[in-house]
């Protein structure tokens, strides 16, 4: 297990009212596997994903990753882990509008502090774009890419620095059925070949076929 | 990766528009400042162009130089004791040409100094602005207070006083015109500690300028106009940089989510601010200097290097302040917030 959580809790306070979103979650992720979180809206699946990814703090519990305790780290230490060991695919591609597809990936390598030389980085980027079928569009800016192409570039950016964990928050929500299957096939293939532990939130039942493990959430707990 | 430059290259229209606004605001400030300084020079260039030193006038004159008359023995003693010191007088008056055309001037004379041109008796040296008005070397002028005539012997630059051209004349001619052998003022250069001279009051150049009836009131109004403009321009600068960066909060949040350091985002903001401000200011300075050269002589324009540098520094500081202010908002923005905002708008 590269990633585990113990008794994760999350409470949001609105004035005097406290709402418990996560009620003691124990989760473990394994390399080479896609774990899918499913559940109704408000069940807490996206909150769990963002806490696991270090994008927001838990109200209680522990998160362990690669021998370290994420919940005991400061913001800078978490940022470093996000940059070097985590990859993110969001519902929207969230590409940087003024960078080409190639530059999006080069920025990720630079942010992760890749030890590769400039030439090696370019080669790595070419290889990654080729693996997501976007090598022919490497000089294109996001504005000239289709929705599916943008999400492919976003996936390539998420894994170009060879993260150990990939977080995917409804990665196919903005795509049509054909493109959704293409993207999920790609995520499955990359998870296996690069031995990444992938945690995915989805509400599309069709996409569960690509997951190795499906966890259903209800009212802040695993059902 | 130079994110700042890449964004400016890709979104060049947005940055050109922002740069144009900064350019127009700074150009307006430079031009108004140049005109204000020009008026100031037009009022007192004769005194402003003096080197650092101390001006003395009679204490009994109560800071009105036209009423000052320095005792000749005191004058001789001060001039003897101080190298480079000289006595001088300034009186407003007028010149009449052979066709009875009248020209207002400030008559100035001195006991001999590097700052005032040497003039022979009967000759007159005028500010160059009068040459542009058609007066030529050798032209003859007279004055109702002088029996003899004045012959224009030449022209000199930067000799304006009380918005009139200065006419340098020989001390004997001055004495004949104003029926006095006594000079109004003494100038002692580079006196670190102005020494006390009995019966005389000492002034720095700036203090002396403030004794001129119209000068301080005029300068106060002009300074207020210029600094009011600088403050408004500065606020516009800061607001534009702030707005530009706040609009990109979502982008900065995503960059933070993937691990880009907040420091790198600050460098991006500062680089863009510096490039835009530098280009806009270079253009503004160039055009305002060009304006100074082509502006008609009736429109005094004077934008010296120190005033230009001062305004430039103010603009950079305010631009930096505006950019940093937005940077602080970006520092506060959480990656999650940015992602959720993006999702909502997607």
Structure explained in plain terms:
The complex is a heterodimer of chains A (223) and B (346). By secondary structure, chain A is of the alpha/beta class. Chain A has 6 helices and 10 strands, in the order βββαββαβαααβαβββ. In chain A, the strands form 2 sheets. In chain A, strands 6-7-8-3-9-10 form a 6-stranded mixed sheet. A 4-stranded antiparallel sheet of chain A has the order 2-1-4-5, covered by helices on one side. In chain A, helix 3 (101-111) crosses helix 4. The model of chain A has no long low-confidence stretch (mean pLDDT 91). By secondary structure, chain B is α+β, with helices and mostly antiparallel strands. Chain B contains 11 helices and 10 strands. Chain B has helices spanning 3-10, 12-48, 72-81, 128-132, 171-178, 205-209, 215-246, 249-257, 262-294, 305-332, 335-345, and strands at residues 53-58, 86-97, 102-110, 123-127, 140-143, 146-156, 160-161, 164-169, 185-189, 200-204. In chain B, strands 2-3-8-4-6-5 form a 6-stranded mixed barrel. In chain B, helix 2 runs antiparallel to helix 7 (215-246), helix 2 packs across helix 9 (262-294) and helix 7 runs parallel beside helix 10. The relative contact order of chain B is 0.17. The mean pLDDT of chain B is 87. The chains are: A alpha/beta (223), B alpha+beta (346). The interface between A and B is medium-sized, with 29 and 23 residues.
């Amino acid at each position: 297990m590269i990633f585990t959580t113990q008794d994760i809790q999350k409470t949001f306070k609105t004035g005097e009212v406290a709402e418990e979103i996560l009620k003691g979650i124990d989760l473990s992720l394994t390399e080479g596997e896609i774990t899918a979180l499913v559940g109704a809206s408000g069940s807490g699946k996206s909150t769990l994903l963002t806490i696991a990814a270090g994008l927001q703090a838990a109200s209680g519990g522990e998160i362990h990753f690669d021998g370290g305790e994420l919940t005991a780290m400061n913001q800078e230490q978490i940022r470093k882990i996000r940059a070097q060991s985590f990859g993110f695919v969001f519902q929207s591609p969230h590409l940087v509008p003024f960078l080409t597809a190639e530059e999006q990936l080069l920025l990720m390598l630079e942010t992760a502090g890749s030890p590769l030389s400039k030439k090696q980085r370019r080669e790595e980027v070419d290889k990654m774009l080729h693996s997501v079928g976007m090598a022919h569009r490497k000089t294109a800016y996001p504005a000239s890419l289709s929705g599916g192409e943008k999400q492919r570039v976003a996936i390539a950016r998420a894994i170009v620095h060879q993260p150990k964990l990939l977080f995917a928050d409804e990665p196919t929500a903005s795509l049509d059925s054909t493109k959704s299957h293409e993207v999920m096939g790609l995520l499955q293939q990359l998870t296996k070949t690069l031995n990444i532990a992938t945690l995915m939130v989805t509400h599309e039942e069709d996409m569960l076929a690509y997951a190795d493990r499906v966890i259903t959430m209800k009212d802040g707990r695993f059902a | 990766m130079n994110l700042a430059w890449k964004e400016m290259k890709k979104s060049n229209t947005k940055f050109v528009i922002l740069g144009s606004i900064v350019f127009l605001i700074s150009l307006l400030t430079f031009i108004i400042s140049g005109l204000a300084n020009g008026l100031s020079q037009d009022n007192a260039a004769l005194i402003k162009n003096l080197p650092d030193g101390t001006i003395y006038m009679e204490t009994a004159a109560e800071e009105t130089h036209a009423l000052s008359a320095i005792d000749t023995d005191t004058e001789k003693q001060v001039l003897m004791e101080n190298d480079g010191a000289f006595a001088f007088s300034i009186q407003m008056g007028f010149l009449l040409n052979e066709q009875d055309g009248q020209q207002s001037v400030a008559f100035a004379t001195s006991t001999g100094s590097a700052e005032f041109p040497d003039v022979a008796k009967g000759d007159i040296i005028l500010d160059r602005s009068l040459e542009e008005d058609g007066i030529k070397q050798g032209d003859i002028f007279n004055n109702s207070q002088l029996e003899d005539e004045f012959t224009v012997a030449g022209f000199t630059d930067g000799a304006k006083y009380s918005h009139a051209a200065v006419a340098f004349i020989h001390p004997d001619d001055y004495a004949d015109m104003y029926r006095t052998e006594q000079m109004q003022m003494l100038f002692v250069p580079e006196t670190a500690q102005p020494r006390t001279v009995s019966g005389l009051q000492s002034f720095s150049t700036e203090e002396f300028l403030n004794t001129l009836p119209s000068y301080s009131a005029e300068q106060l109004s002009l300074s207020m106009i210029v600094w009011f403009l600088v403050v408004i321009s500065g606020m516009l600068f800061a607001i534009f940089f702030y707005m530009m960066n706040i609009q990109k909060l979502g982008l900065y949040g995503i960059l933070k989510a993937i691990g880009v350091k907040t420091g790198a985002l600050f460098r991006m903001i500062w680089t863009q601010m510096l490039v835009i401000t530098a280009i806009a200011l270079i253009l503004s300075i160039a055009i305002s200097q060009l304006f100074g050269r082509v502006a008609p002589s009736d429109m005094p324009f004077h934008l010296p290097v120190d005033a230009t540098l001062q305004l430039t520094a103010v603009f950079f500081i305010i631009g930096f302040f505006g950019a940093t202010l937005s940077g602080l908002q970006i520092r506060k923005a959480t990656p999650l917030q940015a992602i959720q905002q993006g999702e909502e708008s997607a």
